Amino acid sequence: MVSTSNNIALSDKSFLYSPHPPEPAPEAPDVTEDSPLPEASAPHQPLALRDLAERARAYAEASSSLNTRRAYAADLKHFNGWCRREGLDASRPDPQVIGLYITACASGARSVGGRPNAVSTIERRLSALARVFAERGTPLDRSDRHIASVLAGIRNSHAAPPRQKEALLPEDLIAMLGCCDPGGLRGLRDRAMLLIGFAGGLRRSEITGLDLGRDQTEEGRGWVEILEGGLLLRLRGKTGWREVEIGRGSASSTCPVTALETWLKFSRIGSGPLFRRVTGKGREVGPMRLNDREVARLVKRLASAAGLRGDLPEAERPALFAGHSLRAGLASSAEVDERHVQKQLGHASAEMTRRYQRRRDRFRVNLTKAAGL
């Protein structure tokens, strides 16, 4: 049986930057019988190099989001486990092994848990493997026929239209706000999160990554500034920083600015993470930032409490809603020029924005009539 290497770790960048990098070999001096002995070299300074290595690892970590690193780490663990069960070597980027692995994932082989993976999941697993092998200096050739032809066949056989989450329309959001505890800190926090997430068209990580001010935490993804006309959010994304403007609402009960001001007043947060855990039976605000998964849980819980999609069995409803439902809700509801929605969501193309618009008029431009038919 071929030994399996389980030392591939995406979260640990030690294979990229060792704290003791090898020193270049010195050139051999021309030594003759009359040459003096060479002087001793200067002492090695490992502390300075170790500090640089730590910084390099931190920069490498910052090259991708936390959610991406989590997904890739899970994918690596999945691949390593399959190789171990099949007696294959996981340390080398063998295209034949990778081709067999994605076949197992697509067919739902017992060695991968017995359930077929979606095409998007298989493509993500391939991306994770390609990245880690490239960082180890042994690139994976995804164009090799053992991978490319198998992946093309998987796409042709199993690809399906993406399953989009339901958009939370304004009437849905108002019903959910009515299910928040009006007299508790947790209810005040949840109202502010929902309204800011909806009005800003934010991702769940952008909601929980907000700080009250600039440079207050190392892991923050942006901060908020309360102005007379509304909120100004500065967010750090995949392609750099962007600004999101959230205006005041027409009623105090649905105004995101009022909801945030109320949360800050009663939570007594002066700096640091904006949205935190509420402890002590709902009477105390802790120092820890909320995990972004709490946004999805909040949306699912309140959508169920508000009775959304009551035409479906109760067991099926939670799967319809998630954090992206807030983002899709703004894109589907805002009756403004599409360019403004695209800017708010931070999309590079209008086509991406249209994927979020669940009830737009798809036939506003009728090419059939325009052609004279």
TrEMBL record:
- Chain segments carrying region Disordered: 1-43
Q: Which part of the chain is the Tyr recombinase domain?
A: 163-372
Annotated Core-binding (CB) domain ranges read: 47-137
Q: Which UniProt keywords apply?
A: Chromosome partition, DNA integration, DNA recombination, DNA-binding
Signal peptide (from-to): none
Family matches, as Pfam families: Phage_int_SAM_1, Phage_integrase
Spans through the membrane = none
Q: Which PROSITE patterns match?
A: CB, TYR_RECOMBINASE
Identification of the protein by name: Tyrosine-type recombinase/integrase
Organism equals Pseudogemmobacter faecipullorum
Taxonomy of the source species: Bacteria, Pseudomonadati, Pseudomonadota, Alphaproteobacteria, Rhodobacterales
